[in-house]
Amino acid sequence: SQQGEEDPQALSIQEGENATMNCSYKTSINNLQWYRQNSGRGLVHLILIRSNEREKHSGRLRVTLDTSKKSSSLLITASRAADTASYFCATDSNTGNQFYFGTGTSLTVIP
Amino acid sequence: GAVVSQHPSWVICKSGTSVKIECRSLDFQATTMFWYRQFPKQSLMLMATSNEGSKATYEQGVEKDKFLINHASLTLSTLTVTSAHPEDSSFYICSAAPYYGYTFGSGTRLTVV
Predict the structure, then answer these.
(1) Spatial CA neighbour of A26 closest among A87, A74, A93
(2) Chain B residue whose CA is closest to A6
(3) pLDDT tens sequence across B51-107
(4) Which of B42, B95, B109 is the closest to A40 by Cβ?
(5) B46·A98 Cβ contact <8 A
(6) What is the 3 state secondary structure string of A73-92?
(7) How remote is the C-alpha of B44 from its chain's centroid?
(8) Cα-based torsion angle of the residue sequence B72, B73, B74, B76 in order, rounded to the nearest 10 degrees
């Protein structure tokens, strides 16, 4: 399976703290993306990082990519209760357009 | 731009009946659409890749006779869950190329009773 793995599976932090989630994948990729999913809802695209990039920022989000280790991390700084959601990484294979999702991290931010 | 509309957003059906889910690209032509399934508290799993005018390509372990995919036009793909059973209850979501990585439908929650 090309599905990635994320850790931790669940993370609970206090509002204002930083949250870090990690994603590992198995095959060579063109891009890696992070998505957010609120309970029972569709996906919201957060950020894309290309295979030739090492770090990318978007607001309170910071994503890193280490292609040698086939891993990525998502950092959410100064977390808010509204950040409570599941976060998934998704990779595309360099042979096609399919996306494969990681197992997800369930983040709970306690007000 | 690049909006994908998925309908219905939720459906409850009786065991043994069939349910059709539609995925439309509203402002672009989608040569390829992807269907995913998500069980509670699990990740999204790619079920199949749908190419306009040709047969869908199914991922290993997905029954093509049970999950019928039709991509008859460049803006519409449908997923029909045939003879649904309670274990088919899941969240189904589509995405569309060329904006595949960015553009997902809002999902359909199927409950089979």
Answers:
(1) A93
(2) B43
(3) 888 889 999 999 999 999 998 888 999 999 999 999 999 999 998 876 555 578 889
(4) B109
(5) yes
(6) EEEECCCCHHHCEEEEEEEE
(7) 12
(8) -80
